Every structure is written in structure tokens, then in C-alpha cells.
Amino acid sequence: MASRFVKKLLRPFTRTKPFEYPSVDPAIVEAWRAVKEDGLTYLSHPKIAALVRLVQESESAGREGVLIEAGCALGGSSIVLAHTKPTNQTLQVYDVFGMIPAPGDKDGADVHQRYETISNGQAHGINDQPYYGYEADLLAKV
Q1: Which end of the chain, N or C, is less surrounded by CB atoms within 10 Å?
Q2: φ, ψ at 69 (rounded to 5°)
Q3: In sequence order, what E strands does 62-118 have?
Q4: From CA 71, how far away is CA 101, in angstroms rounded?
Q5: Which residues lie closer than 8 Å to 91 by C-beta, 6 or more apart?
Q6: Torsions phi, psi of 87, nearest 5?
Q7: How far apart are CA 102 and CA 121, in angstroms?
Q8: How far is 131 from 121, CA to CA, in rounded Å?
Q9: Poorest-confidence range of 6-20, 27-41, 114-128?
Q10: pTM of the predicted protein model
């Protein structure tokens, strides 16, 4: 059963489609709350919950291996993953920690349009903060 905090966060998302709550311990809930309050993730609550659930299901199934996050942006989901994963499991986080690379010929028009907005300096971050790709030393910040 999910905590009341998680249910409250997800309430607006559960009205339009069913959502399965992950079993979340207090440390994960606190990390989740802090990440959302501090504007450290672009992920919606259901997407964060899905990550938590996948890590928990992997652990329950006895799967071994390394968790990898490729493209961590501000590091919010990495923080939640670090609180969710078993203590003996490795989490590796990768990012360019700066301006994203230009899209290629196989990328869709939406990707090209978003890249143009970002490269022209017109992108906005979470809660009216500067877009993370404009940070001078994003690696140090993350």
C-alpha cells in the first residue's frame, strides 16, 4: 500500500487512467518529495513511481546487475533510484553535463524543434529556473 503522501501526489494523474502504486518506504518517499519540491526532475509522479516499481520488481525477482541512468538532467530521478535500489547494487549515472548534442537525420521534427529552442537560448527550466543545459558547471551542480 502506498503512503498517503504518494497517493496525494498522484491523485491528479489517477483520475484519467488507473495507476498501480508501488510499495514505498519512508526514505524513498522523502527523497521523492525533496526531488519534486527542489525542482530536480522533469519526470511526472507516475513516471517516478514506475521507476521505483521497476527497481523493486527487479530486486524481488532476484535480478542482479547494474542500474544505469543515461541522461540524468538535474539528477532527481538518480536520487530517487539511489534511495530505492538495494545497498549492494551499483547505480551508474551518465550525462553530457552541458548542452545536448544536435539531433540527427533520423530524429523527428519535434526533437529538431526542441533543440532549436534550446540552442537559441530560449528554453526554460523547472519552476522558472534557467534551463539546466545552460549551467556553466552542470556536473558540479548535479
Answers
A1: N
A2: -115, 120
A3: 67-70, 91-94
A4: 12
A5: 66, 67, 68, 69, 78, 81, 82, 85
A6: -65, -25
A7: 14
A8: 9
A9: 6-20
A10: 0.77
Cell numbers 543515461 correspond to what residue?
A: 70
Q: What is the pLDDT of residues 109-132, one digit of tens each?
A: 999 999 999 999 999 999 888 899
CA distances from 2 to 8, 17, 74 (A): 10, 17, 26
**Which residues, listed in sequence order, are joined to residue 93 by a DSSP beta bridge?**
69
Contacts of 76 (CB under 8 A, 6+ apart): 35, 36, 38, 40, 41, 42, 43
Residue found under cell 521505483: 52
Query: Could you read off the pLDDT of 49-101 as tens digits, one per residue?
Result: 888 988 988 998 999 899 999 999 999 999 999 999 999 999 999 999 988 89
The string over 16-52, giving b where at least 16 C-beta atoms fall within 10 Å of a residue's C-beta and e elsewhere, is: eeebebbebeeebbebbeebbeeebbebebbebbebb
Answer whether residue 13 shows pLDDT above 50. no
Residue 139's identity, in one-letter code, is: L
Paired residues of 68 in beta bridges: 92
